[in-house]
Amino acid sequence: MYIMSKKNCSNIDKQTIDEYNMPGIILMENAAEQIFRNIRTLGNRYIIFCGNGNNGADGLSLGIKLHLRARNVKLYCFGNPDKLSRANNYYIDQAQEMEVPITFMDEEDISLFVRDAKKADVVVDAMFGFGLNSEVRGIAKILVNEINNLYDVDIIAIDIPTGLDPDTGIPYGSVVCASKTVTLTAIKQAFLNDECHMYTGEIAIELLDVKDLRHELKLAKLVSPSWIKYHLKPRSYYGHKGIYGKVLQITGCDHYRGAALLASRAAVFSGSGIVCVCSSDKVIDALASTTPECTSLLREEILDVNVFENRDAVLIGSGLGLNEQSERYVIDTLKNVKCPLVIDGDALTIVSKHLDLLKSCSMPIILTPHHGEFKRLCFYNDELEMVEKVSQFASEYGVIVVLKGPNTIITDGNEVYRNITANKAMATAGMGDVLAGIITSFVGQGYLPKDAAILGTYLHGSCGDIIGDNSYTVIPSKLINLIPKVMHEIINEQK
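Below the sequence we write its predicted structure tokens.
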């Protein structure tokens, strides 16, 4: 399933019309046909509110189709008649020729609308779609409020409810509260925000019968349970610790012992065969009581590059600290590592000063920044720009980026994935260390780095969701305990 931002919507429409010579009218005919499929069984009496843009034209086209199929339809149009889109003018002419009842509204017609809407089975919101970028005003605001006062009427939004920001899912102001939203081509980025579903209602996705540009334009994909089940490998009957990965973690320091302990424990619980922690003596002392399954190495002043021999994956950064020794370790690791590398926490801050080393490293690299850490790697102005920048950064430096946050982004610069597991209760210290440990474990077990990042992010969020359903906060150490159980359930589901 693909995800579209407002910019993506515009680009797809433009490219389809300009580069593939698909007339806009044909696009709207296709859109109206798909919307009709979703609402044709809802009743016989329809009221459709149409703005003066292309979303309004979708509504007009839908009204004509309903009329031709013997439904009772009334069209209400508002907006400056001198600023109607070409498609709007076309469909208004068609509607009038077919004698579809149509009212060009002003405030005096509000009472007429209220009377008709109360008698309707379905009211369709075709006012603005994704073209809106501010709070609705004037007659549109009045209409939104009147629509929301209706009872026992199905409210259908075309593409996105009027008044909802298509990128954030945050209302601009007054918002149509739809019982169902029929969205076209892909889900809108707004819909990733769970809180917007009080406005969207049920969401139906319909594809238009035109050239599919979603992959070509690198739209993000949702990580699906089916994808996870397909890629997560069962344990082998003849398996032993040697085939499940030898992982090295250069993590922790005297001041940040917990990060190393969480990351190492997460790797063990995710199925790693051997986990070795290279850290300070205080971390190693604590390791014996928290995760005795791990082996350890005392971190010397200067990195011994022989430590990378016979490793399947390396994690550096979680709780490493920001000092001269740490910086030297990160630089030397990037220059000498002989297997895939996961970079987290403090190491990301250090890498931000040595970005060229990312390009010179011959091994696959996974970066796991939160938004603040990514801003040190790649400056951006706002969250919308950030979504674009993360893919560009991954492509430029040849890395995989796991950008942590709501609906975590995973990208190698070519493909972009969004993860919808996880919740706001997981915003606690140490949660990122757990994720880094899980991802490193999967890399060590032989998963492709991008697949390891997707699997790790999904599993991490799924465990958090189970706890978050009944808890105000999710404690990282408690989340780790769930990992084997959740992996088992995924593997054995519907066998």
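The CA atoms of residues 230 and 491 lie 9 Å apart.
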